[in-house]
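Q: Structure tokens for this one, please.
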Amino acid sequence: MRSKLFVAFLLVIALALLSNLMFGRRIMKDFAAYEKGTREDHIYWILASVEGGYSHGRWDMKSLEDSLHWAAMLRFDCRVEDLSGKTVVSSLQVVNRLGEAMRMKMQIVEPESKGGPPYENYPLFHMGNQIGTLAIRDTMAPPDSPLRKKEHIFKQRGRQFLITSFVIAGCGALFLAIVFSQFLSRPVRELKRAAETLAGGDLSVRLKGTGPDEIGMLKASFNAMAEALQREDSLRKRLTSNVAHELRTPLAVMRARIEAMIDGVIDADRAGLESLQVELASLTRLIGSMEDLTKAEAGFLKKNLPEKVLLREFLEGIIAGMTPLFMDKGLKLELAPGQEFSVLTEPEKLEKVLKNIITNAGNHTTEGGVLLRCGVEGATFHIEVEDTGKGIAPGELARIFDRFYKGKDSKGFGLGLAIARELVEVMGGSINARSELGAGSIFKIILPRGKER
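A: Here is the predicted structure, written as tokens:
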């Protein structure tokens, strides 16, 4: 990237050079065109002035001399000839009649014999009839003329100015190309090194200098990705450790019982086989919970298109399906009265979340029962699951949604609430719990209500 940026800056410099050269040529061309136009205008003015010095069939010498004097001041050497070719008056004659001081300052007029550019002839007219010829030449033409030298100096300084400006701009652009190529590519190089470090297995790498610009946002995204990978790696290690721990106990019990039966320490009777069956059932439940977690982390956690659901009718269906389980324990499962309303949500995920929470509430309740409430708050809706159980200790409340975390009296594997939280977060909502020992617990699910298309 650094070399590409440097080449891009060099291309900009090359374009600047090309535009500088084109600009210089254009200036010189426009200056030459300006000089030519000005000269043509001056010649036209002199012709008009000389033609004005002819009246009643004769020349007004005083007017002609004033016209040629003015022409000399405009750097023109002129000669007025009649129709026969005879010189009526010339610039040299006019200058020679001037005072010495003025004549010394007007030495721009030289005799034709001393060289210089040839005369150009322009016909003179009066009342539509030709009255003579004006021979005129530019006294600026000789290379050693002071005015010609001034013109040359002007053009030369113009070229020098363009060259100097290009050198300054080019060197400045080259310096900036080096600085900016280093400056702009540095964060990209840092990001590349960090990505290589991350790919090498060091998940603790982080980038500094995050900000509101594109590079800063890219660094922030990289840090978020690295944190997510580190968190997932930690969860994976903890999951492996927890699974090994959960499997070790029932397997150890089963192995000890089988070895005891083989050694004849205990009889391989019905009671012994039933104890093995209990341990196998425990393993089966653990594997089922692991399958649920795998499904939740795979396709079940993908966002699907929401469906329109009448929420109270939906909750009543769940209650009807789970009521027999609560009736066997002598508990109630009810829905608080309220108005019906519709929401856009994912019913399959929401049903899984509610069944996990309601089942968990029933397992920790011995008297009373579980009450469901629902309502709308702006762009969200909420569902509360309140039980009359023994409650959750403050120290445990912050950890109940962690994977494989089990309370002191829990008989499960610590996966139900973890799955519920992950499903709620996938749906764009949140879940929280509040509890008081001896007074029960309340789980509150908050989800976006959604808008109908």
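A few notes: The chain has three domains: 2-149, 214-297, 302-448. The longest helix spans residues 146-199.
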